[in-house]
Amino acid sequence: MLHTTPAALYIHIPFCTNKCHYCDFNSFVLKGQPVDEYLEALEREMERTVQALPPNEIKTVFVGGGTPTVLTPPQMERFLSGVARYFPLAESVEFSMEANPGTTDLDKLQVMRAGGVNRISFGVQSFDNVLLERIGRIHDIDDVYRSIELARQAGFHNLSIDLMFGLPGQTMEQMDDSVSRALALDLPHYSLYGLKVEENTLFHALYERNELPLPSEEQELGMYKLIMERLRGSGRRQYEISNFALPGFESRHNITYWRNEPYYGLGAGAHGYAHGIRHINIKGVQPYIDATRARLPRLGEEAVPEHEAMEDFMMVGLRMLEGVRDQDFAAQFGGRTIESVFGEVLKPLIKNGLLEHSADAGSYRLSEQGIPLGNEVFGAFIASLPVK
Length: 388
What we know:
Blueprint: E1 8-13, E2 15-16, E3 28-29, H1 35-52, E4 58-65, H2 73-86, E5 89-99, H3 106-114, E6 119-125, H4 129-134, H5 141-153, E7 158-165, H6 172-184, E8 189-194, H7 202-208, H8 217-233, E9 237-240, E10 243-245, H9 252-258, E11 264-266, E12 271-274, E13 277-281, H10 285-292, E14 298-303, H11 306-317, E15 324-325, H12 326-332, H13 338-351, E16 355-358, E17 363-366, H14 374-379
Parallel strand pairs: 1-4, 1-11, 2-3, 4-5, 5-6, 6-7, 7-8
Antiparallel strand pairs: 8-10, 9-10, 12-13, 13-14, 15-17, 16-17
Helix pairs in contact: 1-2, 1-10, 2-3, 6-8
């Protein structure tokens, strides 16, 4: 397998104003948390990371959470200066930060802009206040409009919002209205996600008690198709199953993941992948802080076997609508072709019209029919190869 130094950096800020009813991310309610000590620990992890795996030029940075924008302006300034001090950022770096509407004011946004952030992804989820309250969000629609306006005032042009479908009690009319309101903002990027009921969430407890009125699978599929139709019709290209963008505004950082390329992962509970080794960091805030004083704060590390890396290449690569290419597969896996490794998996998928093969381009991609059934396609590659 090809082992290259990561050009992408993910950093996790695990603090939130509150925990949403569907969220199973590694996040903690802000009140009473040792935020300054956490930022000190992050700097220690940055220092240890660049000693262990010296970076070349970093082309993309993504700060996720939690809600990174709960940091105060002085905390934000300190955090961003630490990133720039330890990691050599490319002049053309894509520097993204997640934000919740209502957690950004002009002062904070200006600090973010001055500190190098040039892309913001707002977790909007819905343009219906009743639904927002039902899923445990603390913002309302007015916060969304205010946050977008302030971001533009602060000089941000590369803005994205997340919307969710398949929410409890959500109707097709509500979904259509949310998409209309989202498009009226005329943003360059939109991400759309179906609700997944994850364990250890309030929604899971309600689901187990049969108290979560979810739309049917047919209704959920209808919402997804409606979203695709509306966003494509607005000139946004669907470049990945859940993501739509104007040309040139695709998330370069997320494309790193979908191409199965390496990335640094820092912060409590963060994942990283470099030189064929995948790691996850300690999840708890205080245990993470304590660990950074002595070592890299790893919870676990594992070498990724080649057969697993090849499966990952197919599963994440086929999320992109351009699909996967033989030349990229060959570059990562010693010159082999996709067909030589996965021929028996590909044949029925192509025969059933879920995948398309271009012999000229040496590529495989989801068909229009296969896009809504992506999970079935990806699942076909799991454990499809014998362990060697």
